Amino acid sequence: MNDDTEKGKGEDLDWGNPPSPVTPENRKKSQRAQLIIGILALIGIFLPGLLFWLIRG
Fold it and tell me: Which of 1, 10, 24, 53 is most solvent-facing, going by the fewest CB within 10 Å?
């Protein structure tokens, strides 16, 4: 059931792109992306509750 052939092992380990190096520019980009994702998540959480409160009220 478990296919652990030599051919399969090499293919499983070789996937995806390597991570980008940690530079000040990349760190700034990642922090900005995390901030945008966080803001969108908060809007997605609070907007339905706010609309529900306004419509029911």
Answer: 1
